[in-house]
Amino acid sequence: MIRNVFSPGDEKFSFFASMLENLKIGPRYDGFLYLAESARNPPTIRPHRHVELELNLVVRGTISYVLGGQRFTFGRGVLLWLFPAQEHQLVDRSGDAQNYVAVFKPDLIARACHSAANAGLKQDRAAVDGVLHTTLAPADFDLVGRTMDALMEGAPDAEVLNREVGFGVSSGFRFEHEDPDRLNAGLRYLLLLCWRCQRAGASLAPAAVLHPAVRQALELLSEGGEELDLEEVARRCGASAPHLSRMFARQIGVPLTRYRNSVRLRRFFEEYGRPGRPTMLEAVYAAGFGSYAQFHRVFTQAYGKGPRAGLRAIRPGTSGTSRAGKRLLANAGSAQRY
Predict the structure, then answer these.
(1) Which residues contact 294 (CB under 8 A, 6 or more apart)?
(2) Where exactly does CATH 2.60.120.280 map onto the chain?
(3) Is the separation of the CB atoms in 168 and 156 below 8 Å?
(4) Nearest CA to 186 among 144, 153, 147?
């Protein structure tokens, strides 16, 4: 995490971000690509950005991002771009959602883009207010999808990629591909192909402007406020609890309590799997749950079984994790489940 970053030499403001994500892309790679599936992929439920350009293609279902105080929901066939200076937050997905996520290093973009037609790829921000996107024509959707499918050959197992959110939630994970040169060449082709489709298509505007109290609630819960009860969240946001709950559910598409529990469960798995290996109870309290009974209830609602039966000494990255446990961990944090 980087906060209030200044240039040490001249003390001029360089940039500010609530979270600058390190995607940990190895030097042999110009980026990476993976298929995110809501059934087994824990979304990044905190606002973040990264120096790489990100591209999403929705293959199935719907996904919702919050960006610049607006919520955007995208369905099948939508191609969308998230630029380096755009802080974004995935807040909801349908239960059947699948979307390809591709990221491109700045060096790749500099080498690939020389004409004026591709100059927009070198920008830090989109040329529109919000998320630059388009709905692909059927033939383009098929071509882009088949290209992405082909590039996935030789990549890590889909379950591993989903558990690690593509770039690596676990400290030791790094994206690998059995043929880096083919992947790099394919990423360059994919970048230019998708940009051609974007320029030829029309951008839609399915944005919902968020109420200031809803924006503040999102920020509060995403920045360590998961231990707060609903009344305290509402008080800090300057609204009554019932009013905030109604607005949050209407504008974000997820009940406030469910969103807060998804943050807490995600935090629990992060705590339970970190070096030092805290006990389950320590991880429960560190995640913001007020009691083990509360955690047990939320966990059981999410997974259909109690935490001890579901976990049984499961820790992310532990070689003894069972196959069922890996599936459980892969599902941890999916907002639509809670």
Answers:
(1) none
(2) 5-208
(3) no
(4) 147
Q: Per CATH, the architecture of 212-337 is what?
A: Orthogonal Bundle (1.10)
Which of 41, 83, 86 has its CA nearest to residue 59? 41
pTM of the model: 0.70
Residue 137, both tokens: 């024509």
Both tokens of residue 240?
A: 């009554």
Residues of the chain with CATH 1.10.10.60: 212-337
Give CA–CA dist 28/180, Å, rounded: 7
- Contacts with 248 (C-beta within 8 Å, 6 or more apart), sequence order: 214, 217, 254, 255, 256, 259
Q: Kindly state the tokens that stand for 146.
A: 């088949």
Q: What is the pLDDT of residues 269-309, one digit of tens each?
A: 777 767 776 788 888 888 888 889 989 888 887 666 788 77
Residue 90: alpha-carbon gap to chain centroid: 5
H or E element, residue 5: strand 5-6
d(CA 287, CA 308): 17
The list of the chain residues with pLDDT below 50 reads 1-18, 313-338
| Topology at the third CATH level for domain 5-208 | Jelly Rolls (2.60.120)
CA distance 259 to 210: 16
Geometric angle at alpha carbon 176, from 55 and 88, rounded to 5°: 30
d(CA 159, CA 299): 21
Quote the DSSP letter at residue 9. Answer: T
Residue type, 101: V
Rounded to whole angstroms, the Cα distance separating 202 from 205 reads 10
Question: What per-residue confidence (pLDDT) applies to 132?
Answer: 93
